[in-house]
Amino acid sequence: MQKRMKKMMALGLAVTMAGSNAVCVNAEDAQASGKKWTQEEMADGWIKVTNDGGETLGYSKSSGLTLIEQDGYAFKDLNRNGELDVYEDWRQEDKVRAEDLASKLSGEEIAPLLTHGGWMSFGEELSEKDEEYFAAGGRAGVTRSAYNEGNTEMAVKWSNMLQSRAEAEGGYGIPVTISTDPMNISNMIDQNALASTMDTTLANEIAQEVSKEYRAVGITMVLGPQIDIATTNQWGRTSGAYSEDPALTRDLANAVVSGMQSTYDEEGNDLGWGKDSVVNIVKHFAGAGASEGGRNDHNDSGKYTVFPGNNFAAHLIPFFDGAFQLDSVTGKAGGLMPNYGITWSEDGSLGEEVGGAYSEFKMNLLRDNDYDGFILTDWQITEDPDGEFGSRAFGVEDITGGERFAKLFKNGVDQVGGTTDIVAALDGYEILKEELGEEAALANMREHAARFFITQMEVGLFENPYLDTEESLAAVWTEETKAYGRSTQEKAVIMLKNSDNAIAPVSESGEKATIYVPYKYTAASKGFMGSTPASVDPVMDVDLVSQYFNVVTDSVGEPSGKDEEGNPAYVAEDIIRASAEELASCDYALVTMTNPLTESTTDQDGVYYPASLQFEEYTADTAHKAIANGTKIEEISDGYYGTTTQEVKEDRSYTGKSVGKAKNYAEYETLQYVNEAVPEDCKVIVTMQVSSVGGLVWSEVEPLADAILMYYAGTSFGVKFFQDDVLLDVIAGKVEPSGLLPCQQPASMEAVEAQLEDVPRDVECYVDADGNTYDFAFGLNWSGKIEDERVATYSAEPLTAPESISYTAAKE
Description:
six-stranded mixed sheet; 38 strands; alpha/beta
């Protein structure tokens, strides 16, 4: 890198072009001869090489790799040719090195590298599927395990094993990229919760810490942050977004990507790419938040994004004005992920009707505006509809997997996510040769490979991909990092309601108040992480609450119901409620809830049923007609002519469709019971865990509560990260709430249906009994409504177009 070259020149170190005066040396001989580097064997079994004033190297004892010495410094002979190649020379620019390596590879060698589907196994050995992928030349994949608490030691062994094998196999020493979706490592807040702080300084600090912890478990690429503006409350992916507001999302994107991509010294100086850096793949370009009717774009029913407010340009702001204009020395997000959906426009001004990665309109929009970073697709967009995981190849369903790869390669995509189909990737290259000619096809493939290699060189994988167990254990999920994570949660609690100061600063008397902690029933469920049996438990751990309050609670009898297999199972009636006399002693009643859990569904006939943001049943009587009514093939049977097919208009509207009560309706019943059971002077406090920025319709809950604390806790694959003692600190008056709503909360489902999918902050907001409007940037503290610099900064009218490029909204 340029910074590395300048540093060496400032130190008076020779910078000689690769290939000249290079000597292949034995590590022990070089060390004994007093050269400018030393080595030591680490406790984890790999060799660490320290260059005086240069890069630190790492290599495996078992890989067969040797070192090359030039100008007194050590380099890794990754391709075993006894010469210092440009790509092996850590003094050279990353781009120069990457292009040199790419130039040595054939198209057949490159094709497997342009997939990102490995590492679903976790342990000291690879699964059979990962073995096949690795042997075929795949070198990138995502982990769902390395970042979890308790997994650090195994993550070190697993990562080092992968890197050692990559160093030994394949002929070029190309290392492994391990990626992850954004996760709440050490319980630090992210996405919705981070947005509710509206604090970009905090966002940058968290990002710096997160990147260090990711690197300590081998992760060098994060598939995020998700910087879509969530402009419709029902959208199924709002849990991963920051906000509906373009300016807030822009600023958080800048702060987070800057913090994660840069390495900082002890004085906080930005050193650019380095040992603590993680490549950020910002997503989903562009307009994913304008999903038609809030539908989930993982499914065919949600394959369209629509722009009835002619507001596509606003969805570009977090990318062009945020992630591509960083305060960080790294300059711009290292990578980008296109969206799944088809960007629909009646006049075709937003491109052809294909998914984001296949859209020439979107790729040209990037490249024509000087974004030259790495492009990685979202998952399963080259699969066939009848494949193992289904297909999200929207708009290109009728072509083969190989043809999809070829189309993506031609369109500027560098790597295809979620696939191990090396055969299809190779087929794509063959098709590319037929269409472009062999020379142009190979040049295309080498361009993609170089961009992938740059992401690896930026984080130092070619120099030292190995981890030290002792260092990793001291960096991840420590008491110190978890305490920091907890402190970030305190800043993300939003107080929506506080009638008659139900929650107030802790009194000087120090006397404990009495609080009722009811039991609640949770029905059995099945989900991504498996099945969960029905349960009856206190709404919060009684021992924990007892540290703050005197507690009155319920009890439970023996299970009186049966599960699907006939085993004993709890039902709501098994709860034995506290007596009226016990309740009469209570100052407070605590009800913990989660937002209504409903999911949009499509039945076997293809009829779509919308998601609801309320606990009660919902019928979409006021839903507007779907905009993106496509076409479908319909079979017609006739006794005389047989069966024929015809193309017909597809009505995608869901007006009049009904959805049932929320899966967690029992929580609402618990609140109703408590509101009726406790004395009038007992203050009912509701804590509401919200899993998506769109929130809920508050007209059911708010009238039954004296105080409401809301917090965003989108879970990391089923693992809740937000801690109950943080909420208790607020309830007990020890911590003043300071969070603000990053998204408007709707007055009703009718208000949700009336909003335009692409326009931020256009929903009719809920107004509570105290006259407060649950609008964007609303929140309370002990003094009442928060009116601070954050509110002043972000309460202006939403931005409508990026400032850094000349693109304007699509024509009508």
